[in-house]
């Protein structure tokens, strides 16, 4: 659906990577570098708002943003509707589902994408454990869960999605952005970009931890490459704790238990080939460190 046909939703939201992608920030149309790490689409329906800065109240609103964003898909709704209308399979399916004189409309496209996302719920071993099956987790995973609770992670990572229920400042007890070692970007401002309230500077939607073992790299800036790294960073900046190697290993073991099963119907046959992401432009500057003059609209 992108302006040149090179970028699709799945380009940045790859199911085999937990509905995210293994890049610090996404690459959009024309090889443009996006400003922020792509969040997972799996279980997004359980989030209380969408995007890191929470500017979309629901999935229907969220899925419309990247389509017309010049850094992401760089398309228009006229083009999107034309592409769907000219594909016999899609045209027939929209007519069957929505009916009426004009089944292919912006509203119906948004509805179709949002309904697809709502099916991307991934139950797993942790859910069986919560329902009373102690054998669903190993001894080390259970120790990790106990630590996860006792050190305070559940103050933010709570609810059915282990996150996605609130906003929180990045650097709650220690200034993350003072230590980050790079120029700050608009994406680092978080909810401030939406509210323009100083209290919201550096505040973000708390991300889900479901399938977190698959969604590296981590944080809004994609700066942490591995789970042990991001667990240490969270301990230091959000909890004011320097976690020991043993504590980190146990918590990481628990986080690995949060990988779930993607619904079989999440992998439908598509009428046309799915585009892959274009290679990033040659540069010595890592994508997450490259400031953008565009307002961050990605995720």
Automatic annotation (TrEMBL):
GO cellular component: periplasmic space
Transferase listed as a keyword: no
Region (Disordered): 260-299
Cofactor(s) of this protein: heme
Cofactor remark from the record: Binds 2 heme groups.
GO MF entry, a single one: heme binding
Transmembrane segments: none
Origin: domain of life: Bacteria
Residue intervals of the Cytochrome c domain: 139-259
Residue positions binding heme c 2: 153, 156-157, 234
Subcellular location: Periplasm
The protein's name in its UniProt record: Cytochrome c551 peroxidase
Keyword Metal-binding carried by entry: yes
Chief location: periplasm
InterPro entries registered for this protein in UniProt: Cyt_c-like_dom (IPR009056), Cyt_c-like_dom_sf (IPR036909), Cytochrome_c_Peroxidase/MauG (IPR051395), Di-haem_cyt_c_peroxidsae (IPR004852), MauG/Cytc_peroxidase (IPR026259)
Keywords carried by this UniProt record: Heme, Iron, Metal-binding, Oxidoreductase, Periplasm, Peroxidase, Signal
